[in-house]
């Protein structure tokens, strides 16, 4: 994958490895490795300097586009294929039918969390602090007498 001279990273699609990334030769290898592994890319053993996305079948395009976005947010110049560049192309289409399904599920979970579990007994009743009887003050004040010993502290 050719890397433009002003870019630190390049992202693209590879026929054998799926979504891949490379770093510029001017980029320190350990720093490139750190960034790309945090973005869920792993080194390709047979091609040094190339990284492939782990589990590309699991939402690979969105994850690669997110990696491009994250590296740009950190201030790095990133070159990406047209379909992987979040600035040039819109994201994958949003499925409007999935939203009510998730909303209903979240609503059921929230209602269940707010209610009382049938496995527990009835709620404990507590009276407000002002309704509790306050014990009367003692009529006497205890007196403590301390005596010092002449020999000091003993064990």
Describe what you observe in this structure.
The structure is a single chain. The protein is built from three helices and five strands, in the order E-E-H-E-E-H-E-H. Helix content is 26%, strand content 14%. With 155 residues, the protein is of the alpha+beta class. The chain has a five-stranded mixed β-sheet, covered by helices on one side. The longest helix is centred in the last third of the chain and has 17 residues, at 98-114. Strand 1 (9-14) and strand 2 (18-23) form a beta hairpin.
SSE sequence, one letter per element: EEHEEHEH
Can you tell me the residue ranges where pLDDT is under 50 for at least 5 consecutive residues?
Answer: none
Count the E strands: 5
Structural class: alpha+beta
- Spatial shape: elongated
Secondary-structure map:
Elements: E1 9-14, E2 18-23, H1 29-38, E3 41-43, E4 50-53, H2 60-73, E5 78-80, H3 98-114
Parallel strand pairs: 1-5
Antiparallel strand pairs: 1-2, 2-4, 3-4
Observed structural traits:
single chain; alpha+beta; 26% helix; 155 residues; five-stranded mixed beta sheet; 3 helices
In short, what is this structure?
By secondary structure, the chain is α+β, with helices and mostly antiparallel strands.
């Amino acid at each position: 994958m050719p890397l433009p001279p002003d870019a630190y990273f390049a992202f693209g699609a590879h026929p054998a490895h799926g979504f891949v990334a490379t770093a510029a030769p001017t980029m320190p290898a350990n720093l490139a490795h750190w960034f790309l592994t945090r973005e869920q890319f792993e080194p390709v053993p047979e091609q040094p300097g190339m990284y492939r996305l782990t589990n590309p079948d699991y939402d690979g395009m969105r994850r690669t586009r997110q990696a491009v976005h994250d590296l740009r947010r950190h201030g790095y110049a990133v070159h990406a294929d047209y379909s992987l560049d979040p600035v040039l192309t819109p994201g994958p289409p949003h499925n409007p039918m999935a939203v009510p399904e998730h909303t209903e599920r979240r609503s059921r979970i929230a209602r269940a969390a707010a209610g009382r579990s049938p496995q527990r007994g009835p709620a404990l009743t507590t009276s407000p602090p002002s309704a509790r009887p306050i014990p009367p003050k003692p009529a006497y004040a205890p007196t403590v007498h301390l005596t010092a010993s002449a020999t000091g502290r003993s064990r």
